[in-house]
């Protein structure tokens, strides 16, 4: 059999018609896969020249610094490990404390520190405190040397420490017990942020404040007593010139306060017996007490000179006291 015999088949009109129709049918494109999306590239944007100022025309504005709150050193007292075993630590009960690696013995604030010194230890090692003070230079504004007075003869040691404190600009605080030392440390820490106005006295500015300050000068007379006294007599002059019997009627004024007040307003400004040298020159020996002999004359002349100096000093004091008394009397008489 020939090779073409296997492909030999009868001509079928329907088959030929189907082949012709398939050749004339249009080609339909295949649908794209719906799962695959087409990537769109972003379009470039055109920037305007107004948004980018040139470096030559634009002025650089520095940012405004922000005010940060003050740093706090915490509420606990920082204690150096050198102070382990110190009985002062047992007495600190009102505030917390903690050990810290610090150059001072106690840190009581951002600018305050303290060194603890026992005079008994200072007598054995006098160079210790000087080395500690030198190591603290420039680190704290307020440096306190808390000194425990635990020896009997402490005058020389305290005098030396006072000179050292003045030279090195440190504050010397003395204490006689561990409880007192702990109280000082607690006060320094608790008053860390307190301003100086809390302990600074305000000088009087008005007339009424000056009057109250004048009347309360004698000990035992308070501000309320001063106000009631001046209000009762109307003026300060009337209160000064008032008889003690009239002051009894003022509320709150007893015999003790009346004696204090009367003694203050009636006392002369210059004491009668003064220990100062006389203002005028002393006179020599008088003629009626001339010496009778050579040896006795020298001794009697010296004695007479001392008597004359004492008499002249007494006369000057009496004259000044009489003058002050006369001025006070004239002031009381004037309406």
TrEMBL record:
Major subcellular site: nucleus
GO CC entries: ERCC4-ERCC1 complex; nucleotide-excision repair factor 1 complex
Record InterPro entries: ERCC1-like_central_dom, ERCC1/RAD10/SWI10, Restrct_endonuc-II-like, RuvA_2-like
SUPFAM superfamilies: Restriction endonuclease-like, RuvA domain 2-like
Pfam families recorded: Rad10 (PF03834)
Compartment(s): Nucleus
One MF annotation (Gene Ontology) recorded for this entry: damaged DNA binding
Polar residues bias spans: 34-79
NCBIfam families: rad10
Name of the protein: ERCC1-like central domain-containing protein
Source organism per UniProt: Zalerion maritima
């Amino acid at each position: 059999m020939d090779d073409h015999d296997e492909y030999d088949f009868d001509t079928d009109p329907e088959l030929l018609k189907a082949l012709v129709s398939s050749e004339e049918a249009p080609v339909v494109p295949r649908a794209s896969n719906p799962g695959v999306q087409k990537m769109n590239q972003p379009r470039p944007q055109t920037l305007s020249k107004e948004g980018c100022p040139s470096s030559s025309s634009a002025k650089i504005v520095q940012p405004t610094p922000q005010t940060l709150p003050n740093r706090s050193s915490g509420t606990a007292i920082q204690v150096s490990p050198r102070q382990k075993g110190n009985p002062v630590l047992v007495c600190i009960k009102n505030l917390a404390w903690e050990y810290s690696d610090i150059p001072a013995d106690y840190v009581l604030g951002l600018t305050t520190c303290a060194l603890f010194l026992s005079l008994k230890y200072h007598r054995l090692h006098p160079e210790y405190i000087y080395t500690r003070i030198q190591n603290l230079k420039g680190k704290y504004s307020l440096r306190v040397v808390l000194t425990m007075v635990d020896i009997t003869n402490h005058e020389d040691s305290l005098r030396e420490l006072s000179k050292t404190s003045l030279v090195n600009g440190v504050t010397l605080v003395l204490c006689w017990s561990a409880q007192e030392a702990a109280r000082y440390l607690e006060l320094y820490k608790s008053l860390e942020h307190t301003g100086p106005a809390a302990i600074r006295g305000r000088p009087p500015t008005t007339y009424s404040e000056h009057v109250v300050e004048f009347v309360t000068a004698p000990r035992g007379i308070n501000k309320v007593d001063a106000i009631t006294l001046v209000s009762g007599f109307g003026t300060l002059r009337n209160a000064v010139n008032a008889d003690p019997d009239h002051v009894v009627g003022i509320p709150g004024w007893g015999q003790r306060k009346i004696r204090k007040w009367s003694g203050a307003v009636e006392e002369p400004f210059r004491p009668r017996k003064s220990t100062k040298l006389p203002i005028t020159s002393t006179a020599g020996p008088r003629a009626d007490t001339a010496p009778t002999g050579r040896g006795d004359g020298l001794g009697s002349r010296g004695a007479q000179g001392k008597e004359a100096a004492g008499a002249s000093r007494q006369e000057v004091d009496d004259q000044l006291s009489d003058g002050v008394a006369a001025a006070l009397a004239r002031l009381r008489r004037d309406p």
